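[09:14] KT: can someone run the structure on this one? pasting the chain below
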Amino acid sequence: MNKRVVVTGLGICAPNGVGLADFYDSMLNGKSGIIFHQELADLGFGCQIAGKPEIPESLKESYFTALQLRGLNSSGIVYGVMAGTDAWMDAGLAKADKDQPDWDSGIIFGTGILGIDKLRESIYLIDDNNARRLGSNSVMQTMASGISAYLGGILGCGNQVTTNSSACATGTEGVIMGMERIRSGKAERMLVGSCNDSGPYIWGGFDAMRILPSNYNDNPQEASRPMSASASGFVPGSGAGAMVLESLDSALKRGSKIYAEVLGGAFNSGGQRGVGSMTAPNSQAVQRCILEALKDAGVEKSEVDVINGHLTATSKDAEEIRNWSEALERTAKDFPFINATKGLVGHCLAASGSVECVAALLQYREGLIFGNQNCQDLHPEILELVDASRIPMKTTSHKPKIVAKASFGFGDVNACVIFNDYKEM
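[09:31] RB: done, structure tokens below
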């Protein structure tokens, strides 16, 4: 069995837009969600800027019951539930009846670190001999699968409900995992996505590694500079993205709108061998992942016309472009259009792949390619391989056909998914 898989719903909770309409407007107009955070300055961070979705308390009440909100102290769960629920509604799907799960629908919703503020709160209570004051929801908010568990209960999904975690490759990996489950006939619909907590306890380790830009605290919107010669590190971010994947048969039967088709994908690891390490990708594995994704999708190298890259605004950006160029055997003006979402939202860590997949898929709906931010001074090593016209600075009219989206994470792990403009056969 090899069912066709399509995307029928999208949801987003990003630093520059909560909800599809706000996010699309920000992406269209180059509006950044990166701002200065006084809390980081007070804590002595070198990098005092970040991307963080702004969620008013009144909005949370639309997604959570009063009981669920009591003691809720996990930003990742808030972001994930909002994005996941919105994607479900966008697909025109209803929540399951109270007495019967939806056996055909499942969830794969990933995360990196979840509930770290709740965990800190719990540690202080335990250290003060107040363990009994932890409350009944401390476990649900700090277990890795808390996000999929919350969504599973809200939506009533009765198929596989689980959480994946592969650092920055988490979101893209989840799309492939969901696709494979539907393709094999084990589910009709899978809600896939990923989320990440926000705040100093998430971002502090990266600041200590000195891989964040500390020279843009007074000018945060210019700090995230993918593919730029003056890039000085990634800006930390947070949020969630979500997609409803569905068998084509189910989508057509429901009369659902279709954003795009998921043709195939692949994930692998460089094994931290060769030039690969805990923090650096093995180029051989990256190229192999791209080629395996194309093979799984049945797509030729020449057919890829748009790439949404991982592109973190670090020294690895030029190497990523070289990997794409060598894998696809394409250079100069023959290179696909390429863009980097992180210029406007920062690096949302485990949420990055899903946030960026939503951005990539919105391009199909609107018939355009979002522009790149803060890279007017393109890195010279990139310009040796790619003509500047293939890296649009502003949103450009172009109907995507084959879009390749890749994510690479700590631990030398890689994921690449291939989308296609949906066509009936």
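[09:33] KT: thanks! The chain has two domains: 5-254, 264-420.
[09:34] RB: yep, looked fine to me
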